[in-house]
């Protein structure tokens, strides 16, 4: 597991405003965030705090009202939509809560979809997609339609799709939100596996249990980062610095700190999952 | 931007076959429009072909001179043209023109065609028969197949006439012994000296249906109807190589005698058949307009169904944009779908159009023509309809916000 120290995502006083006058509302307010490659970031927070907006912003689906966004070292908040789309197809993988596979398109074509927009030929697309699906043990399902698969399988297909272009960053918006605990577990294990191979993952979730998979947990409130904590001690990363930590969060941090002292990161995860499955 | 044509094609075919009924109905809308256009073009092309063939079989060395003005009021008015297209009320051609042309080098035969419609009396009375005043040269130009007797002779001074096959049946109830019988015109009597075999060529470059006409000499016609109008002067040249030269010379000479006023047209070759001014061209233009209206209706059908398709697939658009489709990709995808719809319509319309044209030709003397031109026009129409009416839905699809589209559920 190599942890590059390269900043893959760098947000500087990013603001997203909706409406004007009295209806003015900030989905994101002066948000600063730097994510290094190889991190597994979990973003949490109450609904309406701007998690998904942030994720869409990072995924170049949305444009900020103001602020700077450097993706992979280049400023991208003002580049043309076409170039943003190209970045999405080549460097960003999306995983959604509702899987978002295209109905009426076989699994393999769904997985290969991002490659279409990268300009790969059909044979090559299918080859790559098939290889990825093999990693998820879905080879026999290649020519199934999405509706013939279980939720867990569909989400694994979606994960395969997000990986097919070997992206720099994978964005997951509540990937387990529509799944039962068993499927959630499988999906999260897959994500863990992907992360262990060196992928950067940014995940939005409501489920606090899933923070055990993360190397970094960000809590958001009202469009800004409330707490930002590293869960796994990483020699290369600086010691987590909690700027505005209220009592409750501090307590949680302490607990987590204790645990990570006792056990290694993976063991913590296992323990957590056992608890959850009970 | 990568075009991904193969992808768009497959995509479009998948979608269209997934909504078979809907696609079929939309295609049918286009097909009906294209059908009417193809039918009109094929039939009017057939008419032109027919005349061209006649000229070809006659040797191809025919020049016709027709008056350009004197059609009464409103020359440029389509409706006025329809009402007056066949007969020129005040023709600009005169017997002097005939003599001028006759004297030119390379001109073999010249005949005026002066047309009047009168009632004839044989054994039966026949109303409104076309009587054509000509010179004996006409037979050398047209080369009538004679069933009985002979054509008008310049030597003969008596009032003689040559009649068409159908007219003989109408006048005498029989075509077998018409020769020698008399036809009454007003107070005068014409003796039938010739009977033309059945021609079945109601459309020809002389604009006279000789099956239903009585041909008399120009002199006699002038005596009976002093203000007779010459509707056309038909000319046969020595050979076809000199056609253009002689046509130019005719033009020059006639312009001279008219103080450079151009009130006639000189045509030869394929130009004669070209129905630029004939009833057929006007009718076909109007039919084409009507067909155009039905094409617009078909196009609106395409637009409608494409809008439905875009609305139905908003979520899909969202997904595609999220995984990296540009606006251009989405635009092309939907544009392709519209194009395929309209192209299928064009193809179907082409088939229908020819089927109907051949059906209609069973009742007409001419056959519809299939030319590359018509195929191209049908194809272009289809593509244009698809592009024009598919544009708005495709633009709408491409401009959808990916986030909102992802939230959109069916």
In short:
Chain A is 36% helix and 23% strand. Chain A has 278 residues and is α/β, with parallel strands linked by helices. Chain B folds into two domains: 5-51 and 281-407, no CATH class; 61-268, no CATH class.
Secondary-structure topology with pairs:
The complex is a heterodimer of chains A (278) and B (410).
Chain A: E1 7-18, E2 25-36, E3 40-44, H1 51-58, E4 66-71, E5 74-75, H2 81-91, E6 92-95, H3 107-116, H4 122-135, H5 151-163, E7 169-173, H6 181-196, E8 200-204, E9 216-221, E10 224-230, H7 247-262, H8 265-277
Parallel strand pairs in A: 3-8, 3-9, 6-7, 7-8
Antiparallel strand pairs in A: 1-2, 1-4, 4-5, 9-10
Helix pairs in contact in A: 3-4, 3-5, 4-5, 5-6
Chain B: H1 5-18, H2 20-57, E1 62-67, H3 78-84, H4 95-102, E2 107-121, E3 125-134, H5 137-142, E4 146-149, E5 160-163, H6 165-172, E6 182-185, E7 188-196, E8 213-217, H7 218-224, E9 230-237, H8 243-257, E10 264-268, H9 270-273, H10 279-312, H11 314-322, H12 327-361, H13 372-398, H14 402-407
Parallel strand pairs in B: 3-8, 5-7
Antiparallel strand pairs in B: 1-9, 1-10, 2-3, 2-6, 2-9, 4-7, 5-8, 6-7
Helix pairs in contact in B: 1-12, 2-10, 2-12, 2-13, 10-12, 10-13, 12-13
Describe this structure in words.
The complex is a heterodimer of chains A (278) and B (410). Mean pLDDT of chain A is 82; it is low at 235-250 and 259-278. Chain A is built from eight helices and ten strands. Chain A is an alpha/beta fold and 278 residues long. Chain A has a single domain (7-277), classed as P-loop containing nucleotide triphosphate hydrolases (Rossmann fold, 3-Layer(aba) Sandwich), CATH 3.40.50. In chain A, helix 3 packs parallel to helix 5, helix 4 (122-135) packs across helix 5 and helix 5 runs parallel beside helix 6. Chain A has helices spanning 51-58, 81-91, 107-116, 122-135, 151-163, 181-196, 247-262, 265-277, and strands at residues 7-18, 25-36, 40-44, 66-71, 74-75, 92-95, 169-173, 200-204, 216-221, 224-230. Chain A is globular. With 410 residues, chain B is α+β, with helices and mostly antiparallel strands. Chain B folds into two domains: 5-51 and 281-407, no CATH class; 61-268, no CATH class. Chain B has helices at residues 5-18, 20-57, 78-84, 95-102, 137-142, 165-172, 218-224, 243-257, 270-273, 279-312, 314-322, 327-361, 372-398, 402-407, and strands at residues 62-67, 107-121, 125-134, 146-149, 160-163, 182-185, 188-196, 213-217, 230-237, 264-268. Chain B has a six-stranded mixed barrel with strand order 2-3-8-5-7-6. In chain B, helix 2 runs antiparallel to helix 13 and helix 12 runs antiparallel to helix 13. Chain B is elongated, with a radius of gyration of 30 Å. Chains A and B meet through helix 2 and helix 3 of A and helix 1, helix 11, helix 12 and helix 14 of B.
